[in-house]
Amino acid sequence: MDITFKNVTYIYQPNTPFSHKAIEDLSFQVESGTFMAIIGHTGSGKSTLIQHLNGLSVPTDGEVVIGEYRLSKHDKPRDMKELRSRVGVVFQYPEHQLFEETVAKDIAFGPQNFGVNEAEIGQRIKEIIPAVGLNETVLERSPFDLSGGQMRRVAIAGVLAVKPDVLVLDEPTAGLDPRGQKEIMDMFYKLHKEQGLTTILVTHSMEDALKYADQVLILNKGTKFMEGTPLEVFNEKDALQSVQLDVPEIVQFLNRFEEKFGQTIPFQKQSIKEIAQSIQQIIEGAESR
Amino acid sequence: MNNSLIIGQYVPGNSLVHRLDPRTKITIIFFFVFIVFFANNIASYSLLTVFALTCMFTSKVPIRFIIKGLTPVWFLIIFTFILHLFVTREGTVILEFWIFEFYSGGLIQGIAIALRFFLLILVTSLLTLTTTPIEITDAIEDMLHPLKRFKFPVHELALMMSISLRFIPTLMQETDKISRAQASRGVDFKTGPIKERIKAVVPLLVPLFVSAFKRAEELAMAMEARGYQGGEGRSKLRELKIEKRDIFIFILFAIVVAALLLIRSYS
Lengths: 289, 267
Prior knowledge:
The structure holds two protein chains of two kinds.
Chain A: E1 3-12, E2 20-30, E3 35-39, H1 46-53, E4 61-66, E5 69-72, H2 80-86, E6 87-90, H3 103-113, H4 118-131, H5 148-160, E7 166-170, H6 178-195, E8 198-203, H7 206-212, E9 215-220, E10 223-228, H8 230-234, H9 237-242, H10 249-261, H11 272-288
Chain B: H1 16-19, H2 22-36, H3 42-59, H4 63-87, E1 93-97, E2 100-103, H5 104-130, H6 133-143, H7 154-184, H8 194-199, H9 202-225, H10 244-266
Antiparallel strand pairs in B: 1-2
């Protein structure tokens, strides 16, 4: 589903001394099938933005359009549930939302609410469990007996079981070990590709944004600071530093290389190996001269 | 978003009323509640009203908030007024209507009682509007201190109060977070038949309890790790201190009380 934000402003507790503008005049577009990363510091409005994607928040001003659903001060979709079945949200620390007696029941909770029949749910659980890297033996266990990483996977499975068209991920790997982080991100990316999802990833990790995203949106204090492909955005080192964001390590390395040796290797998402080869060529070129 | 949560009804500010020692405020309100019942004529009522309104205006709390704080009791105020109007049969008849007769005494009594209620609630809500819950807890701990002699666990009580106050916003946030997550999974908290809506509370309450227990455990562990051992020999970051302004307010209040008693005995 295409997603469009048109001049969206969102104010918490308007007309009180606590009123607080979380998003201001934000406009952007995400085409169906895009993997978009949203980056910004705490308090930049990322979490508020996410809540607009499935109607948990409705803009104070402006308009959000998701597929055929339109959200603004004046019109809300009559069937919010339908919108929510098509936009799946994995919140920060999603394991906090587990509540059922068994893992199977918890995964089935979402699809049940959206009226998927039992046979279909059983089928989906069977497919999802290996996809999120779990073993079928956990299905009959209590989610509260599992390890943190396993709980996270169960919670993610609960969102995926709804089979949404748009997948919204709010720092889905926070607090996991590096291996778990990579496994989970790779899994999301695989799903994104295989099922043609539109994925919105909120992250602090420039590396993840660089690796997976087609489009990057950088928020600063509730407004759009930059938008573009990862290449465009991460080559703006100075602009990023002005809002205390770092460029990915690999880009940092190339910048330092340029500073030190006066040789430019343009960054085009090469792998580390390819960069090593470019450097080798430069060195060999220098030697042969 | 964190600082946008209202704890109790506290409205931040830097007025004289805000800066008063919470003990001063509590003491004055305690006595004010008594002397309101001593007022018995127009002069004494106006004196108290002027005092209460002055406090209200110096606090600089927006009137909207005060009115909002009064909403639950408007009904009571109006109800007592009407009751007096219908029931009291003193003075002269001022209005006859169908089978009812309204007496002047009823009207006056009604206004007096309604005003009494209004003043009580205005002043007490002013306390919670201008004092943070933590200040109130500190003041209560300090004022209950003499009870320690009778083995009353004053410190523990205050600690319990401040911990629960401290965790109200946390739990509110948590509730907010979990209800958003469950709403995204298709739970409908707002519409649908009552039975369904009650059932919808389970996915909210279970995670909330789980996290509350976890938090309690972590807090207890953190306190022990830092050597907490109760109130014995414990010092405070913000020491309560009676300042000049507190003394000034006490004197002012004493004058009001004296004037009230004087007016009362002359009538």
